[in-house]
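Hey, can you fold this one?
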Amino acid sequence: MPHATPHADLVTAELDSVLRGGPFHVALRAAIAARGLPLQRVQHHLSRHGVKVGVTSLSYWQQGARRPQRPESLRAVRALEEILRLPEESLIRLLAEPDEHAPARHSAGRSHRSLVEASGVRERLLAQLGVPRDGGLRTLGHHERIRIGAGRELAERESHHIVRAYRDGVDRYVAVHHGDPGATPERMTVHALENCRTGRVRWHHDTGVLAAELLFDTRLRTGDTFLFRYAVEDGTAGVSREYVRGAESPGGQYALQVCFDSGVLPVRCHRFTQHSAAAPRGGHQELALSERHRSVHLVEPRVRSGHVGIAWDWD
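Sure. Predicted structure:
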């Protein structure tokens, strides 16, 4: 029986070590090196698993320049575990750990770990509802109104959507709500407010994610537009300090309004953007809070991939 070379033993030991302790990009780089696969071959294997990832993205991932964050990217990471003959969940687990090289964030905000976990949970909830990730709708306009209650909690989120169908037969939309840390989604209530009714509702307690079907009671044809409005009554977590909206692909106009209870106005508010959950925040802009209207807002004329949000500081 052939014996492993000292070099092979060293590579295997290094891989075992970084799979236990991370960080993700070092573990991925070590796993690819241990299998002796060029990135073009890794990409080919991924395509055979039904996942499309560019060689440039793979290079960024193993350099630590970017971290997989979108649902499609997380599916690729799970496929990589099989392709590279790694233990199940070994790379995904490292993605859930904070990146020590990333800039520090406000501790009360949604962490990279929570966003990664919520992304995977969202996919599982959609699967439970038997709904494809591609819902057949494109967003033309989306207005969100966040209400912060007297206890400084995220009390309610109301959404007004304008969509267009790009295939025949679309008759529903699945709304996903990610509560603040400590939220209990089983205590939330979904209200269908206009041109829809509530169907099945599913949730995941540990991540505070809720998914609800909104049924249109009509089947859209390709090119048809539709307007609907719903709200999620939350109020189940502690003090709220920000609201973030992520987009996987470019879309239409997006407006976010945050309204505060008259007795609990923050001392300052600002908007921000992020390329991904693991990227540093940029695009900071102070927002003037009107004591009369008790609200701030932002408008994105055309949504780009990434995250946009509003954060606020209490006294």
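DSSP finds seven helices and 13 strands in the chain. Let me know if you want another pass with a different chain boundary.
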